[in-house]
Amino acid sequence: MDFFLISMPESFYEERSYVAGVIFKEFLGLGNRIQASPELTDSYIISMGGKRIVITDDFFCRYSEPDGYLGMDGIPKSVRYLSNSFLAGKDTPVFFGGEHLTKNEKEIVCGIDIFSMVFFMLTRWEECVIGDRDYLLRFPAEASLAFKSDFLHRPVVNEWIAMLANMMRFLWPGLVISPRERYGVVFTHDIDLMSKPVALREFAKDILKRKSLSAFSKRLGYLFAAGNPYDVFDYFMDVSEKHNTTSRFYFMTGHQVPYRDGEPYNGKPIYRRALQRIKERGHVTGFHPSLNTYNDAGLFLAQKNQLEMDCGTAIVEGRQHALRFELPLTWRIWEGAGMRVDGTLGYSSREGFRCGTGNSFPVFDVVERRQLQLREQPLVVMDTTLHVNRRLSVEASGDVFRHYMETGKRYDMPVTLLFHNLLHDTIDWQGWGSLYSELFE
Description:
Number of domains: 2
Strand content: 15-25%
Low-confidence stretches: none
CATH class of the largest domain: Alpha Beta
CATH superfamily of the largest domain: Glycoside hydrolase/deacetylase
Distance between the termini: 39 Å
CATH architecture of the largest domain: Alpha-Beta Barrel
Mean pLDDT: 95
Number of helices: 14
Radius of gyration: 23 Å
CATH topology of the largest domain: TIM Barrel
Helix content: 25-40%
């Protein structure tokens, strides 16, 4: 394995060494040693065999450790779109550093601060300092730099690291880069509802809200038919197995907030049956903690323990209900409860790359300034984002899914998708069963 020395300034060593380690271990798969160098103040140096890449530090060098960088003054005021011979695409977003670039056979000097931009996106530290919140106290997509500067749809972390990889190949021809993850669809399913949608409340909505006799008639069919449109567990697993992968089902055990925390399905036969079938077929059972767990460690742990009792196995991954999340508290709660993979970080209102990538990565607590054991598997596209929140047609929704899967292929990057177990409900999700079949079968 090739061995690179990564030298960096002594200040903010925890932050700098974290991001350098993630880039080299996770995204590049290259052997490396990281060292703090008192001679460096405003640059990083990547060296091996008498050749080196010098990367400008345009962020951390502005701050002293006692004061820190978590303030509005650190949020970029503008984004430039640059092109150079090492960038894979045109007009790549850059917000720390400049376009200065020189190269010869021994050295490349790059003015784009790749390390600080990757750190900004992966740690989501802007969410600690920007006060905007939506009705569920979530950080909204519309407040993010990525949305405001129109690059939420781009895996910019992968773009920047691809530029670094190209620079390294230029200096070290034949270099073999072996990322930890490759392209693939990560099929996830949050389970909020399991019983047939035949409550009196739903019949009333058909008449009073939907004003649809057709919906009322279809619901009568659900009432008297033997099948349940929400019982699609075997179907999801069938499709995943065709792709030589697994389905990941995230179940709730807490339903404190009526009509917001799904339905209390945990004592019903369909729940027990689903847990058993998932286990028998070798797929993944995960945790979908309820609405008020995002800042309540005790409630989170109690619900997780209940799920483990129900399924008879350890639970180590999942996603917050309604994507409710508070940085860095929610990550701390997950780690404290023994969780290993969180899949919450996508936006409810918009699809795209909240963390700048589809790759999973170890998370960093910017307040306590330490890397956690927890990994984030960012959510890229959620069905309710397109169908409910953005009210896109089935056809337009299909185009969105295809776009992000093609983007994943282009950057050899996993793409995590969320489909609830609702797509065979022909009242509220007409056409979605056919779309899923078309996309994946």
